[in-house]
Amino acid sequence: MKVGVLGAGTMGAGIAQVASQNGCEVVLVDLNQDMLTKAENSLDKILVRLVEKGVVSEDEKINIQGRITYSTDTKDFKASNIVIEAIVEKLEVKHAVFANLETIVSDDCILASNTSSLSIASIGSALKNASRVVGIHFFNPAPLMPLVEIIPAVQTSKATLDASKALIDSWGKVTVLCKDTPGFIVNRVARPFYGEALRIYEEGIADFATIDWAMTELGGFRMGPFTLMDYIGNDVNYAVTESVFAAFYYDPRFKPSFTQRRHSEAGYLGRKSGRGYFNYAEGAVQPEPNKDMVVGQQILDRILAMLINEAFDAVFMQVASAEDVDKAMTKGVNYPKGLLVWAEEIGLKKVLSQLETLFTEYGEDRYRPNPLLKRMAK
Ligand code: NAI
Question: Could you tell me the sign of the dihedral formed by the alpha carbons of 212, 215, 220, 222, in that order?
Answer without folding.
Answer: negative
